TrEMBL record:
Keywords: Membrane, Transmembrane, Transmembrane helix. Residues 403-416 have a biased composition (Gly residues). It holds the Pfam family DUF1616. Residues 1-20 have a biased composition (Basic and acidic residues). Residues 361-393, 423-433 have a biased composition (Acidic residues). The keyword S-adenosyl-L-methionine does not apply. This is DUF1616 domain-containing protein. The chain crosses the membrane at residues 27-47, 53-73, 100-120, 126-146, 167-195. InterPro entries: DUF1616. Residues 1-23, 336-444 are annotated as: Disordered. Residues 32-333 form the DUF1616 domain.
Amino acid sequence: MKEPFERSRSSHAQSTDRSRPTGPADLATLCGFVLVAVVVLVGWNPASPPIRAIVGLPLLFLAPGYAFVSLCFPAGSSPAGAETARGALGTRTPSDGERLALSFGSSLAILPILGLAIPSVASFELAPVVGSIAVVTVLAAVGAWLRRLRLAPARRYRPAFARRWSTLRWALLPTGSPLLAATNVVLAVSVVLAITTGGYALLSPQDGERYTGMQLLAEDEGGELVAAGYPTEIEPGESVPLTVAVDNQEHRDVTYDLVVRQERYVDGDRRDSEVIHESNLSVPDGETVHRDVAVTPTADSGQIRLVYLLYTDDVPSDPAPENAYRYTHLWIDVGDGSAGDDSDGTAPPPGAGEPGAGDEGPPDDDNESDGGDGGLGDDDDGDDEPGDGDGNESDSPAPPDDGSGGGGGNESGTGDSGTDPGAADEDEDEAGFDGDIGLRLLGR
């Protein structure tokens, strides 16, 4: 009597399963979840990591794989003793637990493929990533629904969540083995932690590097702003019109304080400094603002350095490159550029165009190769001795003169004697050459 009763109960369960609606409820739920995830992650984009993880983890590690598995296996598991339903990858169709495991593994296989394909069509940002996952999932779900329609209603896959939940609970927490139950719990917790960590790393906002770029620009002949053509000489009272470009990559809107400081140098030493311009620049996050800044130096003559200082906080009482957030500078000669300046009046190359390049000091007199310090050069006694020159070219022969007597410091002061120093050098070279030939003839 027991066997017929069990058989009748089994047939009753099968008839009950056939009488259930065969609509793709799981695929419809999947598509609805994907739509909600897109709205939350892209439209709302919450800053809270738990909310992003709750929505993003299933979207990443379950949704695309479940749609793909449903596409490959549209039929449900066959009852015991019945003919096995045929799936896309073979004659055996997976059970609900196997579908869940395959969904996770398929998602892990699909994500790298999307990661390689997205940069070729769009930037690797949140919206393209979420959108591509949603499109792939929905397309696979639609394909799975079409494949199910081609099967008989009794063979279509229908998830039995209540029955599978009891089976899963018995598998994780078997009553006969406490050690096995504890092992299963630890394994399940480890998997959840791994998925949570990976999902948080993928979905949490990445701030990246924070920085501010500063640059001095000048107009070329065509009216374009370029990092070249800076003014090097001006007349007293003449303004210096330049454009300051500030690039904000601080991941927030910033209002900068711009300070222009004038430094006057005499004989390579800074004599005084003063602030000649102050203004504010409001730069939105991720944008670059160009501000025309025309400053008028107060110096009447000599060499000056204009230092452009940028601050994000309050400007100190003594603005300087040492306390600025960013700075750049420009060397300019005022007037004839000879009063109190280096001997040749050549200004150092402008340091504009590179943030932080303003820490270069004025040129050293000792390093000037053409310094005009009265012809002293490296001579300590200050006497204009013959052949001394400027002290930096003493090892090289003097260039030939045209006999005018203007030796320019390289002659000994007897240029009016009509002696050609070039001829003397040629005589010495010929004597040395003859001596070499004599030594070779003697075999030495």
